[in-house]
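chain below, 233 aa
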Amino acid sequence: MNAVLVADSFLVDTGKVRGLDRHRERFAGSCAVAGEPEAATYFSDQVGRFPGFGRWFPRFELNQSGLSVQLRPAPPQGGRIRVAVHSGPDPRTQPRVKGPDLEALGALKAEAAADCGADEILLMDHEGIAVEAAYSALAWWEGDVLHFPQSGRAFLPSVTAALLRELAETRGVEVVESARRPEELAEVDELWLLNALHGIRPVHAWHDGPIDPLPASAADDWQRALTALACPI
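prediction:
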């Protein structure tokens, strides 16, 4: 079996990418730990060949055969989502590395979709604190304060979350790190799931419960600002 050691994906839209250097740094850093020191050079060489038209969602990968990249058409960009909460053991074996756990997390996400129509599934650490979703980072609003999970906890360093945090600071928004359990997140003013493909997706429903129309959602404004950070390759 050719197991995935490291992976990274990001949205390329008409030749522009958000946080490309951060994606390169994250991928190359994890590859170096796995024994592949040339990942940054490979990454840059391949990105330079990407087309300047269309929407793409390339996947860089390190496996036992070496480095590779797949230039895949980007899936449609999603909006508001329904989220479920994982109730079993933590399936992650390497929470801070993107790649080794993708298959297991994808299976959990598919199970949640079949069970209650959820688009994502929330994960907790060993203390029961919500830290991330299967394919997304977390951010939430309590009043005018934007919260993120505590950086000392075990979860994937998200490029999109880092960009949102910097954007908030430039806008003069107070940013803090907090520990919240899933039931507490269900009561905050607004919970966002973040990733490179979709940007910001506000949670509008939990499990198989009713839909919250989120009439005062700030997500659209912040999504436009996040999209504007994309730079030419």
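The first helix runs from residue 20 to 33. The CA atoms of residues 126 and 171 lie 34 Å apart.
thats it, cya
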